[in-house]
Amino acid sequence: MVYVTLDALEDDGDYELEVYGLEWDESDATAYWDDSEDANYYEVRLYRGSSTVTSVLTTYGTSYDFSSYFTQSGTYSFRVRAVYNSSNKGSWEESDDWYVTSSEASEIYAGSSSYGAGPGTSDSSGGAWLKDDVGWWYCNADKSYTVNNWQFINGFWYYFDERGYMKTGWILWNGSWYYCTESGEMLTNTVTPDGYYVGSDGAWIS
């Protein structure tokens, strides 16, 4: 018998995790940055002056909608870093400052609330909307996520499929049809874009 001892495989940690191109969309307070080659996800954080507005938030995309955090005037900036895994993270990069007046902050915040929680945002419960190559899903504070069911998030109902991804359009649930907008919110007491009326519980009234 021959025994061969091999060197242990080691992770050299040599990943491309630099982040460039940080910029604001000043129409809706969405932060953008360029994709980092080896990033599996990104961590972002919002600042007003030298104070932190949010905790460290996670997203799988190269943008983050901060509009729901614009509650007052101030000089805003955001920081982002690329993450390969919990042991391999890039350096924090900081955006340019953006001064927002009280009226501008009110308009931005109103725009965010008119669409519910909205994919791309987090909320006071500690959960967060995340996106990957398949679509949007919602990560709860305890790292769980809803599958094959509805979840109430920031005042709106959203439906998640068998893999946990948010669905849009018509949803057949327990024998009734419900309509979810392009941003995921279930419609109630209104007419859908294709001309059908849904009641107070969101179900189609035939």
Task: Write up what this structure looks like.
- With 206 residues, the chain is mainly beta.
- It contains one helix and 18 strands.
- It has one helix spanning 102-113; strands at residues 23-25, 30-32, 41-48, 51-52, 57-59, 63-65, 74-85, 88-89, 93-94, 98-100, 128-131, 136-139, 149-153, 156-160, 169-173, 176-180, 190-191, 197-198.
- 28% of the residues are buried.
List the main descriptive attributes of the protein structure presented here.
206 residues; three-stranded antiparallel sheet; single chain; flat
Topology of this structure?
Elements: E1 23-25, E2 30-32, E3 41-48, E4 51-52, E5 57-59, E6 63-65, E7 74-85, E8 88-89, E9 93-94, E10 98-100, H1 102-113, E11 128-131, E12 136-139, E13 149-153, E14 156-160, E15 169-173, E16 176-180, E17 190-191, E18 197-198
Antiparallel strand pairs: 1-2, 2-6, 3-4, 3-5, 3-7, 7-8, 7-9, 7-10, 11-12, 13-14, 15-16, 17-18
